[in-house]
């Protein structure tokens, strides 16, 4: 390497600049695809590597739904942002009900359904999941008291909808409401 003085600058190799990373990657992808096709002698393998029919958009909705049920919630939300078809699949109520059952268990979901009034049963499972996540992100603090008197622990906590919000409240002391 040359040492630089005040007026000299070190020369770097020239790399082409691309406006889009996708355009920059396309020539490499095409050349690797053509070399893979040339290297394989089986027509089924070569047609598979160059075919657009292997795209996930060509999969059956039931197959995609089954895959989405197994993914973490963050991945489902990311998948939802890729295209309109995937948004529709990833926002469906049956998927979010399955996610709620997976995350919370069958018992709590069945109890929640039993406690809902008929007009509340139409609530979106995705919205319900968001509300529960928001409630879980709330912080709890220990109460301090100057005179040393603290409230007794509560039992019989209840989870209900109030004005389209999911509210968790506790019962009275010793399990009384």
From TrEMBL:
Domain F-box: 53-99
InterPro entries: F-box-like_dom_sf (IPR036047), F-box_dom (IPR001810)
Alphabetically ordered keywords of this record: Kelch repeat
Biased composition regions of type Low complexity, renumbered to the chain: 31-54
Pfam families registered for this protein in UniProt: F-box-like
Gene3D superfamilies: 1.20.1280.50
Signal peptide annotation: none
Top-rank taxon: Eukaryota
Protein name (database record): F-box/kelch-repeat protein At1g51550
